[in-house]
Write a structure and sequence with these properties.
Chain lengths: 478, 342
């Protein structure tokens, strides 16, 4: 008895998000005065609230729907103003460069002509969409919603780990986690200058209006915006609901929409109603069975025709997935310099592109010290972490690399920063990353904070929710 | 200018309302059956509930006897039975899941918590004889949802579709509740000399109408007064007439407030049904067959639902435009009139 929250916490040799700087002193003190039993009781109540509120992802088995909450840790991850400033500027820079890259790739392709990016890396990419060539995207805003995965290394340096330019998810947890923290731990947050996360829906609507057809000519002051979801069976359905509510727009499925004369309509009780902007949470290849996968039941036949006719805007634009490729990622520092003439504000993790001979040789020689990742996968799948891998796993990885080197990159194994986390009634260090969310219409805005994902298994470096990850509230201080 | 409402959402909220109302009334029907069964002179045959819901086929696939245990489980906890309380609430919750952008958070939470409770029902709670607390809880769960909806649901088009669903289902269920005892009480007894008032009181209690009935009729409790009360009372919130009036009010409001073009045939049907309910006397109904009258009303409500689907939910047009003919309800039989008089 008598233990306080941080009494026995020891981050070991890792960079700790809580103990490292003066800006978190007040929060440390408050946690230091809170009995751990009290903390546990309130955290458990908060988790039950998440479950009852249905802030869940849904796992469907044969006979029933099982709702799970994303495990939530109530000890916040805190970012002081100066660190957030770097992240915010870094994310805006990165999104700007990605949009310029996409505009170039789908139009003039100067970057190939200047020899900065291998043509086959893009043109051979499964997410390259040749039909996007020549389409004018308003404000060159291809990536309207971007999630940039950022980690912090042993020295406390922020580094970008991954760009999510297709349909990044998780923002609903950011905002719901905050609601819950303010309900369960108002005394922790009170008076410390915590920046709000309430503006996300408003900013999203504003960006959707920016890209609406007729917006630039003032013809359509009140565009009809909808959110297109695969439906209740999708594991991210809660987030789709959340976003539709925050934006105040209808949540539609493909069957609610139809195309007539290259215009998009939704089926309403009063007949048809025009749709101007679609925030779609469906991948490119399911959007329109006429243009992509003919077996797609989720999309809208003819949607691409309406899109190319300029009668509807899609967010994100079609074809942004090409940026999510980990091989393209490796070129990002060069891409930023090429389009913006600036150094990256947040550096990449040093990355070896195995399609390049020297990098492959280096990777094979140092396999037991490197992390090897397939370029096209998301969700933490297919990764080999050298220092943790068995001999058999290393041998398997080696064979795959030799067989298809262009499919892999390798990176040094970084000891991600840790954050104190409640595990079975004790507070232990766990590795975290950060996914800030950026919204782009005419300009780019970054939600202060973002999703802090935490690897709940001891020693694990994989934070993905599909791999046993949880989340924390991210507190950006003024 | 109001927001457009997706046709699919209109249908989901309509059925969400019906499913919750259905679950509540299933609990009422089981409650009245259980009360009857506890009565020494009461009827222990539970098959009437099965007949009432036209579930003989699927019931027989699972159970050989319609005893208390089998029927209770079949209608309370059997997730495979499309007409069980559990299934109704599961469907309501699935509809609510689709409607989450529209319904209030409180509505979703209430349904979510209620469904999780139904999933956790213990075998002991459904044992015949100890069922009352559970049925009470189920009724309360549904009423809680209804109250939360009243208090938190935005008064937009969807609200009108919610009310349409709730009152159509309630009208239908009140006829079923009445029908459930009509079978038993009329089978062996002549209308005129039926004296088993305890059972009719149980029926009124199950409909939450006992006290209101007492205010109206301090003295006699006769079966036809009970039937008249449940069918025609203009102030009792579960009477068929009041429910149909509410449907009509909601429908008129929906059409005028949101300028919806479809559904003129629905308005016409509602007019007719209101006029039938408003002009027929209970003597006429009893004389020519209560069960037949109930059946006629149920067919009418189905026809209204079908036309709502065609007008607003994006369903294909109704093939047979005619309404159930009032003549299909057995014509007035004058020779029985005297028997029915109080």
């Amino acid at each position: 008895m008598g233990d306080f929250v941080l009494d026995r916490y020891d981050p070991g040799g890792f960079y700790c998000e809580m103990l490292r700087c003066a800006a978190t002193a007040e929060i440390r003190d408050r946690l230091g005065r809170m009995a751990i039993d009290e903390f546990k009781r309130r955290a458990a109540g908060a988790e039950q609230a998440l479950y009852n509120l249905g802030i869940t992802f849904t796992v469907y088995t044969d006979s029933q729907a099982i709702d799970r909450i994303l495990p939530f840790d109530a000890i916040p991850r805190v970012l002081p103003a100066d660190e957030w400033d770097q992240i915010e500027r870094g994310v805006i820079q990165r999104v700007t460069a990605l949009n310029l890259l996409l505009d170039d790739l789908y139009n003039a392709q100067k970057i190939f002509k200047d020899g900065l990016l291998p043509e086959d890396l893009i043109l051979g990419n499964p997410n390259w969409r040749p039909l996007m060539r020549g389409l004018k995207v308003p404000h060159k805003a291809y990536v309207n919603i971007c999630g940039t995965d950022i980690i912090r290394d042993e020295q406390g340096v922020f580094r970008v780990l991954e760009d999510n330019a297709r349909t990044p998810s998780g923002v609903s947890y950011v905002i719901e986690n905050r609601h819950m923290m303010l309900r369960a731990f108002p005394d922790l947050a009170d008076g410390i200058g915590l920046r709000s996360v309430e503006d996300y829906g408003i900013k999203l609507v504003s960006a959707m209006r920016d890209i609406a057809p007729g917006n630039s000519t003032g013809d359509n002051a009140n565009p009809e915006i909808v959110l297109l979801s695969p439906g209740t069976y999708n594991s991210a359905y809660f987030e789709h609901v959340f976003l539709a509510r925050e934006m105040g727009v209808p949540l539609v499925g493909g069957r609610d929409l139809f195309i007539d004369n290259d215009r998009v309509y939704m089926r309403t009780t009063a007949g048809r109603a025009r749709v101007d902007v679609i925030y779609r949470r469906i991948n490119d290849d399911f959007l329109d069975p006429e243009a992509f996968r003919p077996d797609s039941m989720l999309g809208v036949p003819g949607l691409m025709r309406a899109y190319f006719a300029g009668n509807v805007a899609l967010a994100n634009a079609v074809g942004t997935g090409v940026c999510d490729d980990k091989a393209v990622y490796a070129y990002m520092p060069r891409i930023i310099r090429y389009y913006l003439g600036e150094d990256p504000i947040i550096e990449n993790v040093q990355t070896n592109i195995c399609r390049e001979k020297a990098s492959l040789a280096y990777t094979l020689d140092n396999l037991d010290r490197l992390v090897v990742k397939p370029v096209g996968e998301a969700g933490g799948y297919g990764i080999t972490i050298g220092p943790r891998a068995s001999r058999a796993e290393l041998a398997e990885c080696r064979a795959k690399l030799i067989d298809d080197p262009a499919n892999y990159i390798s990176q040094p194994c970084i000891g991600l920063s840790v954050s104190p986390t409640l595990i079975d009634g004790h507070v232990e260090p766990r590795h975290v990353d950060l996914r800030p969310f950026a919204i782009t219409g005419e300009s780019t805005w970054v939600l202060p904070g973002g999703l802090t994902r935490v690897a709940l298994r001891r020693g694990s470096l994989v934070v993905n929710s599909s791999q046993g990850g949880g989340s924390k509230d991210t507190w950006v201080l003024e | 200018m109001s927001n457009p409402l997706l046709a699919r959402y209109a249908e989901c909220i309509f059925w969400l309302a019906r499913q919750v109302e259905r679950a509540e009334n299933l609990a009422r029907i089981i409650e009245v059956q259980e009360t009857f069964a506890r009565n020494r002179s009461g009827n222990r045959d539970w098959s009437s509930i099965v007949q009432l819901n036209a579930d003989e086929g699927i019931f027989a696939e699972k159970h050989s006897v319609a005893n208390a245990g089998n029927v209770i489980r079949f209608y309370v906890t059997d997730g495979d039975n499309p007409n069980s309380i559990k299934t109704a609430i599961r469907n309501a919750r699935e509809n609510a899941r689709a409607l989450r952008p529209l319904v209030s958070t409180e509505m979703w939470v209430a349904l979510n918590v209620f469904y999780n409770r139904l999933n956790a029902i213990d075998e002991r709670e459904v044992a015949p004889g100890s069922l009352s607390p559970l049925l009470e809880e189920i009724k309360q769960g549904c009423e809680t949802f209804t109250g939360i909806t009243e208090g938190t649901f935005y008064r937009d088009q969807a609200w009108y579709f919610y009310r349409l669903g709730r009152y159509i289902e309630r009208a239908d269920q009140t006829t079923r509740l009445l029908d459930s005892k009509y079978y038993v009480l009329m089978r062996d007894a002549d209308i005129a000399n039926l004296v088993n008032t305890g059972q009719w009181m149980a029926l009124l209690r199950a409909a939450s109408g006992y006290h209101a009935f007492r205010l109206l009729h301090q003295g006699d409790l006769t079966p036809w007064r009970v039937a008249a009360f449940l069918l025609f009372n203009p102030s009792f919130p579960r009477s068929v007439l009041l429910c149909v009036k509410e449907v009509d009010t909601a429908f008129t409001g929906l059409k005028s407030r949101y300028n919806l073009r479809g559904g003129n045939d629905v308005a016409e049907g509602l007019d007719q049904l209101r006029s039938i309910l408003g002009t027929r006397s209970i003597d006429e109904v009893l004389a020519s067959g209560l069960h037949e009258f109930i059946d006629f009303i149920q067919r009418y409500l189905n026809a209204i639902t079908e036309r709502l689907g065609a007008a607003f939910f994006g369903h294909p047009p109704v093939e047979t435009p005619a309404w159930p003919d009032a003549d299909q309800w057995p014509p007035f039989a004058a020779d029985l009139q005297t028997q029915a008089q109080a």
